[in-house]
Design a protein that fits this description.
Structural class: alpha/beta
Largest sheet: 6 strands, mixed
CATH superfamily: Hexapeptide repeat proteins
Order of helices and strands: HEEEEEEEEEEEEEEEE
Shape: globular
CATH class: Mainly Beta
Number of domains: 1
CATH topology: UDP N-Acetylglucosamine Acyltransferase, domain 1
Oligomer: single chain
Length: 139
């Protein structure tokens, strides 16, 4: 039964990926994983960029437009990143490679590669880190 659930989950993830990339035109790597509760901005869908082996947990909101200022811009997540539960990534942000964003954070500024950020607004709490697939911290 566990194997069937895993296969069903992967089919749904693959279908969702195809929908985001083919219908909306988002730039999402095939090796990235997007949890079911993640909300990606569909107002300017072509502005969403998610690189290889990154993982977005449930409740993440990734924006690529700002209605109040009438801005449409690109928002990036690099390789091997982990974006925690209920993180909000504001439009125009660039998150580097091998980054971990703590749950509940609001990312208001670019995040350099190989760092951990957390808080509201998100601040760097650790640097010189390395991650493996889906942003899992290497010891």
């Amino acid at each position: 039964m566990k194997r069937i659930r895993e296969i069903a989950r992967l089919i749904i993830i693959y279908t969702k990926h195809m929908f985001f990339t083919l219908v909306y035109g988002m730039d999402i790597s095939k090796s990235a994983r997007i949890s079911f509760g993640t909300k990606l901005d569909k107002t300017y869908a072509k502005g969403i960029h998610i690189d290889d082996e990154s993982y977005l947990a449930s409740g993440v909101v990734m924006l690529s437009h700002d209605f109040s200022r009438n801005i449409h811009t690109d928002t990036y997540i690099g390789k091997k990143c982990f974006i925690g539960v209920n993180v909000i990534i504001l439009p125009g942000i660039k998150i580097g490679n091998e980054v971990i964003v703590g749950s509940g954070s609001i990312v208001t500024k670019d995040v350099p590669s190989n760092s951990i950020v957390a808080g509201n607004p998100a601040k760097i709490i650790k640097t010189d880190i390395h991650t493996k697939r889906f942003g899992q911290l290497l010891n």
